[in-house]
Amino acid sequence: MDLSTIRERLATVDAALVDALVARQGLVREVARLKVDGGAALRDLPREEEVLTRVVERARDAGLDGFLVTRLFREILGHSLRTQEGALATAGKASGGAVRVGYQGTEGAYSHSAARRHFGPRGGEATYHGYDSFEAMLEAVEASEVDFAVLPLENTTSGSVTLSYDLLARMDLALVGEEIQDVDHCLLALEEVPLSRIRRVFSHPVALSQCGRFLSTLADCHVEAFTDTAMAARRVRDEQDLSQAAVASEEAAGLYGLVVLKRGIADQRENYTRMAIVARRPIACDLRVPCKTSLLFATRHEEGALLRCLAVLADHHLSLTKLESRPRPRNPWEYLFHVDFEGNLADPDVAQALRELAGRTSYLKVLGSYPSRTSAEARPVEPRPRASLAAAPPEEARTEPVPVEKRPYTLASRTERSEDTVISVAGVAVGGGRPVIIAGPCAVESREQVRACARIVKEMGGDLLRGGCFKPRTSPYSFQGLGYEGLDMLAEAGAEAGLPIVTEVMHPADVGPVAEKAHVLQIGARNMQNFSLLKEVGKVDRPVLLKRGMSSSIDEWLSAAEYVLSQGNHMVLLCERGIRTFETSTRNTLDLSAVPVLRERTHLPVLVDPSHAVGVRRFIPPLCRAALAAGAQGLMIEIHPEPERALSDGPQALTFEMFERLMLSLAPWRAAGCSGGRAYS
Ligand code: PEP
Ligand code: MN
After folding, report:
1. In this predicted model, what pLDDT tens digit does every residue of 235-272 receive, in sequence order?
2. Cβ neighbours of residue 109 under 8 Å, at least 6 residues apart?
């Protein structure tokens, strides 16, 4: 046979191999369909092992390398498993449609390979879109420009990708899958040249650091950091210089027409990157699929808090696969803990564990459950004859969670948590022994006005600076606040005086941006039952000051707090600000009886705002003292340098002089501390 005849025959054999794979994949889809309808277990480990043993034996009998066949079939069985998992994950939903997938970098980057491997078995059409940064890629998911994004989380050599964790904490996104990418770094060049001729090597800094030992053996060679591995390969192609090389994947070599000078150049052979598949909304996973759940939380301000949180997972036999701590934004020396464990939110026991965990955290965000790629059960088996294998999951594991009738609020209730909740606002403890004072103007009007207020608040021993930027005014013709410009003035004044700031949010879309600058988000009386707003503030890691609605009962108010808590944000401060009655002598009627009632019913801190309650400045000081006597754990007071010129709520603003006198009169009350919630029973 001459060379061209052999090549023709090879082409025929290759085509037959592809046809065989197509036929196999068709059968796999049939199996997946039957499993979705019939409820059979996803994995049949003895069968997988039998398949592998059979093909390896056949190969060996025919004189073919068993190792080659094992490797090929591991890939094929892995693909089959993903297909079946995909079918279970999307059962009942429209599937097979076109999906748009974002990744960071250019074609041939490791993230791109991971994306193709993950979305390949889905069927339907997937398009891949490269982004310059993780942030731009995740914003594209938020903006629905793409349906999914592939986000590297950790590498077995270089550790966690901390930026990814910080973005997941900040953005409102879900995890719906993971993928393991085998990172096999190669040295790529234009042609087969001796290594001694290479003078410059480009790659991503992480890739360079992972190949440090090999690179140091190249004499007279300069190593240069580049935006990503695939771009480094592209540069080597573009510059056509035989002395240049790139560290990238074999796939990148194929894409950019380069040759592999050396394979496996990483210091550690076991070099894998775990990537998360990110989407806007979480998915429900079938209980037959081995799953992981990811979440992040902040602990309460208590001794041994982290240990108590992790103990919940241990008590429920949920195995931890990852624990990462990151600095908590705007809270120096506090941390957000990112946890992955083996388990599925659809499992009632996992749901119960998370309810218990919620009670021990001050902030909890569940990112979702998704098919695991790292648990032993999630990988295709090795062809090793073994006598006994893991049995299919027991029948009871598949039962649906039983809905239980809920009380209107539980997380907010004293019966759920007997100790007072202490909330740390940038180091100021609210709800602890010492009553806190929040003071400032009704509305931020100018840089000078808010600065003057900040100074006097600090000077007189106040704890937090308040100021409205988005004002909920009864008339649309009244001053509406300075918006974000005002927020900048408030933030500046607070920072200068060393006071954390409190400001009101009125629209769900403002919650994220305002939370970037304010230490506490206020929900005004008029919005106490704005449920979409409550859910939104429930998702951010920022304390919420929830005013009582002017016609709301205490239980309605606690149910509103429950909205925030049930989203994972356990930092709610309740603030009584007067209710509507028949009385017209004061703006509202300060319901001081709410204070002891609340202290009995809830563990959350209770504050009183006498300013909005009475609306008349001279009545405010006695009511401040009365509130503390009743057990309030803090006060919110409006002040203004020139109340007669105030753009809102002038009649109730204390002059600086009145505020000074008030603060002096409160000193003994503050020194005495708040009476405990138990004092009322
Ligand atoms: C405020 O505190 O500025 C305010 C508008 O209060 P309330 O929502 O209690 O009326
Ligand atoms: Mn006001």
Report:
1. 999 999 999 999 999 999 999 999 999 999 999 888 89
2. 103, 130, 228, 229, 230, 231, 252
Q: What is the token pair recorded at 398?
A: 């598949």
d(CA 491, CA 502): 9
Alpha-carbon torsion, ordered 7, 13, 14, 19, to 10 deg: 150
The SS3 call for residue 103 is: strand
Rounded-to-integer distance, Cα 1 and Cα 18, Å: 24
Residues in contact with ligand 1 (CB, 6 Å cut-off): 442, 468, 472, 504, 524-526, 547, 577, 612
Q: Which contiguous run of DSSP H or E holds residue 243?
A: none
Ligand 1: distance of its center to the CA of 4 in Å?
85
The runs of H, that is alpha helices, within 91-228 are 110-119, 134-142, 162-170, 205-210, 212-216
Q: Which residue, by CA, sits nearest to atom 10 of ligand 1?
A: 525
Query: What is the rounded CA–CA span in Å between residue 310 and residue 291?
Result: 19
Whole-number Å distance, alpha carbon 612 to ligand 1 midpoint, is: 7
Kindly report, residue by residue over 661-675, the tens digit of the pLDDT.
999 999 988 888 876
List the beta strands (DSSP E) in 161-251: 174-182, 186-189, 200-203, 222-225, 244-248
- Give the integer Cα–Cα distance in Å for 350 and 342: 10
Note the pTM of the prediction, 2 decimals. 0.76
